[in-house]
Amino acid sequence: MRLVWRKGRNRSGVGQSILDVPADTLERIAMAVDTPVYVYDAEAIRSRYDELTVALSGFPHEILYSVKANSNLSILRLMRGLGAGADIVSGGELVRVLRAGFAPGKVVFSGVGKTRRELTAAVENHIGLVNVESHDELTLLNEVAQELRTVVKFGFRVNPDVATNTHPYTQTGERGMKFGVPMGEVLSQALWARDQEYLLLQSVGMHIGSQILDASRFRQGAEKLASLIEQLRDSGAEELHSADVGGGIGIQYTSEEGLDAAQYASVIEPLARSTGLKIMLEPGRYLVGNAGYLLTRCVHTKQSGGRSFVVVDAGMNDLLRPSLYGAVHDICVVAGGETDELKLRSVDVVGPICETGDFLGVDRKLPEVKRGTLLAVRSAGAYGFTMSSNYNSRPRPPEVMVEGNRWAIIRERETIEDLMRGEQLSPDVALDWRTGRENTVDE
Ligand SMILES: *Cc1c(COP(=O)(O)O)cnc(C)c1O
Predict the structure, then answer these.
(1) Which of 105, 285, 335, 422 is 20 to 30 A from residue 241's alpha carbon, by CA?
(2) Phi first, then psi: what are they for 243, rounded to 5°?
(3) Pairing between β-strand 359-366 and β-strand 345-350 as defined by DSSP bridges
């Protein structure tokens, strides 16, 4: 796809200081493509990537961008251009990263429920690594590799039994959770794999959760990985190439402090030193989270039961995080409202969806908002569009990339026709449940 760049406003111009992208560029975008719309700042993504690369420069490492955070092809192309590999969790994401031009050798496949079809696609495309999460999956991968007579490089994603104090739905590294191979089983599975002609163990890794702000959790996990690797080596010369520390680096959404890249690097470094292995990491949110905005307009204001509501044209189908995780995103007025910060009022910013859980922000202090006021929900670059749905038959919003003082649509707004594609007004053929034969309905 060729990007059509349009003129925005130069960053050196007057903009609202709280926004990286000048307010009038956001306003122009909203006028041109309508709202709601996701906007990503390419420069902000680049600077995060550079920050991480500099912090990790003391030891060999490879950054694998976690595609599920934001899988737009233009974002993937940007990551590839920066030198990242890709961490994928489905066959669909495999198609995306290959389309975006990632070398298959720089693709790592994670996830707890890979199907035979997905594993086959991974092996056929000779991807860099399959991170296995159970013995059952390992035996399935072995079958696929035998069928295709192809040697498969794989790693174990272990469950290091490390607790994180994040939202329960974003914890993945504790005993009893569905993720990873229990530490105590890794050795026997590694020995089993060594006897298989087509399996090649290359890596041991973890992914303990998401939005982790406390570096000590990563330290604990890294220490456990280090001792496991030592144990594997003692038991018979495993030719490991890398240790994978997963993603999960926490960012700033409102007043919390994001995990500092240098601090993160300092707790990972001992693993690199003690094992001599290349460290692979799978950041998603860290690279794209703060770089994105969801622009939305106020459609009505109302007072009810002693509360003030700002009803906007984006809902939980567009940005699920507040409803699903109780996530708090900063919301600010971009244009068309009162800008006097002295006149703040407490409002609930809610969407149009028929669910009480449909809100973008509760009890927010905003200057007066009226019909048509343009708002920006900040830090919506990760798990925003990728978690969006068509609930209430709402077409998903377009996505826009800002590059310096230009911008381009990188995904068109969906249409109602897109939503009904493949549906039947009335089915022509039904399956007779007694005979299993197809009968036409009017027979
Ligand atoms: C989701 C996920 C990531 C990325 O997590 P972030 O919190 O976005 O950094 C990395 N690795 C795996 C296996 C994941 O499932």
Answers:
(1) 285
(2) -120, 130
(3) antiparallel
The answer to whether the beta carbons of residues 290 and 366 sit under 8 Å apart is no
Report whether residue 381 contacts ligand 1, using a CB cutoff of 6 Å.
Answer: no
The dihedral built from the CA positions of residue 254, 255, 259 and 261, taken in this order, carries a sign that is: positive
| Residue range(s) occupied by CATH 2.40.37.10 in the chain | 6-40+289-420
Q: pLDDT of 358-377, one tens digit each?
A: 999 999 999 999 999 999 99
The single-letter code of the amino acid at 416 is: I
Q: Ligand 1 centroid vs 208 CA: distance in angstroms?
A: 9
Which range among 13-17, 298-302, 370-374 shows the weakest confidence by mean pLDDT?
A: 13-17
Comparing C-alpha atoms, which of 51, 407, 33, 430 is closest to residue 260? 51
Could you give the 3-state DSSP secondary structure of residue 344? coil
CATH of domain 6-40+289-420: 2.40.37.10
- Which of 40, 121, 111, 109 has its CA nearest to residue 79? 40
Q: Which residue has the tokens 């174990």?
A: 156
d(CA 436, ligand 1 centre) in Å: 43
Selection from 379, 384, 283, 409 nearest residue 20 by Cα: 379
CATH of domain 71-283: 3.20.20.10
